[in-house]
Write a structure and sequence with these properties.
Blueprint lengths: L3 H6 L4 H13 L4 E5 L6 H13 L6 H9 L8 E4 L8 H10 L11 E5 L7 H12 L5 E7 L7 H4 L3 E4 L5 H8 L5 H10 L4 H7 L2 H17 L4 H8 L14 H29 L6 H38 L12 H7 L6 H17 L5 H16 L1
Helix pairs in contact: 3-4, 5-6, 8-9, 9-10, 11-13, 11-14, 11-17, 13-14, 13-17, 14-16, 16-17
Length: 385
Amino acid sequence: MIATTLEESTEHQARARVALTAALSSGPSHAYLFRGPRGAGKASAARAFAAELLAVGAADPGDAQRRALLDPSPHPDLVWLAPRGAQHMVEEVREKVIRSASYRPFEGEKRVFVIEAAEQMRDESQNALLKTLEEPPGFVHLILLTAEPSMLLETIASRCQPIDFAPLPPEAVEAALAAGGSPDDLAAAARLSAGDLARARYLLSDSGRALRAAALEMGRAAGGDSPDTQRESASAESPPAAPTASNQPWTQLIAAAESAGEEAEAETRKLLEEEAEAGVKRSAKDITDEAKRAGRRRRTEMLDLALELSATWFRDLAAVASGAPEVTYNSDRLADLKNRAVALDPSRPRRAAELVQDTRRRLDLNVSEELALEALSFRLAAVFS
């Protein structure tokens, strides 16, 4: 019988639910690749699917399922590997997955190995895992979870049965956020999350609000003010402060991303130091290098997210200027958008959004972030001049 928990965990993932239900009915594959955006429910679906597999041949199937569903799980035949820091440790993949896969089940008839964020395995780990994927014992099932399947070696992906997860619909994200803020805040975070529940929760956090504020300020500073707004600015008693490098919106955006990176570095360092104290072999240099990698990765992710949010602001501005305010993502900023869209040619914010997206692509090529964003600010100002 298919567990209710699997149905619940894939409530908004009909395609994945059908595939996993069919697998349990006809006989599961030895390896799966759960692929889809972060926050789409891959982990909860993997845990529910593993619970069903571990119930096979168990003396008490219900108890086996219950223990497998706990996080962390005490079930001896469920191995769940999550990256510690920026990447999976090669030694952990070898010891906890490759070597452990040769041991027979402790309880029922199956052993399940889940590798979360599989794209964070180094090539060395992925190559070492190949033989296990090619010739696994009959009782072994491997589930790889990834939000970036392109970062996996083709030889890994081709040996797994893909299970696709789509972005969650905004209403599902909003419902999951529950009491995380005001109704306007929740609605905007859900729309801006792109179906990623984890991103939505981040946008409602203090650091997420700061990052979004910096991204929106970059959009506002570029232009698009209504004539009324321009007259109000011109008639203000105090003249505006002269622009300096430190108060430019793009520098604030970088500062917000750097702050997020510093938080990630500190959190990773603390975790690795605690593990070292508990007996995990890591040198001080290893801890420092791993923490710095985690910080850089987070900084890059947040800078990209900030640019995405800025592009969304321009996209919303174009929508309102075109008479379609109902499709805006920044729904909690609708009054501001309407004010700035008065008599605005929609082609201008559309062009601005294209420029932001072009800068995101440039940053993928490892160009200077400071120079790229400074150039973007000038290009955006020219669009609205």
